[in-house]
Amino acid sequence: MKYGIHPEAAAEHRRQVAYYEQRQRGLGQRYHAEFRAMLALACEAPLRYRVAFPPTIRRIRFRIFRFDLIYRQANEIVQVLAIAPQRRQPNYWLTRL
């Protein structure tokens, strides 16, 4: 399945990669690899994951880093709305709907 990333979500992702890479060489790449893995899961079976905001917004928790991939499926496209920290600013991304 195809995907699209909201511009603000893409900016969040780039900031996190830079932040982790600055903290430790290669850590940003590990974060990016986990993001790509979660995105692949969403594209593979978009309806498998928990509804975070009814009726269509879903969440996949990262396994290593403390982030959630927030997305919805619309017209055979997985739309990534946010790469949200698990413990800060819940639902800040709702303005992106």
How is this structure best described in words?
By secondary structure, the chain is α+β, with helices and mostly antiparallel strands. It has a single domain, classed as RelE-like (YaeB-like fold, 2-Layer Sandwich), CATH 3.30.2310.20. 36% of the residues lie in helices and 30% in strands. The protein is built from two helices and five strands. The chain has a five-stranded mixed β-sheet. The protein is globular.
Helix and strand topology:
Elements: E1 2-5, H1 7-23, H2 27-44, E2 51-53, E3 57-61, E4 67-74, E5 77-85
Parallel strand pairs: 1-5
Antiparallel strand pairs: 2-3, 3-4, 4-5
Supply database-style keywords.
single chain; 97 residues; alpha+beta; YaeB-like fold; 5-stranded mixed beta sheet; 2 helices; 5 strands; 36% helix
Q: Uncertain regions: pLDDT < 50 for 5+ in a row?
A: none
CATH architecture: 2-Layer Sandwich
Number of domains: 1
What about the largest sheet?
5 strands, mixed
The CATH topology is: YaeB-like fold
What is the rounded Rg? 13 Å
**How many E-type strands?**
5
Distance between the termini: 20 Å
Just give the CATH class.
Alpha Beta
Q: In sequence order, what are the helices and strands, one letter per element? A: EHHEEEE
Tell me the CATH superfamily. RelE-like
Calculate the mean pLDDT score and round it.
92
Strand order of the largest sheet: 1-5-4-3-2
Proportion of helical residues: 25-40%
Shape category: globular
Secondary-structure content class = alpha+beta
Tally of alpha and pi helices: 2
Strand content range: 25-35%
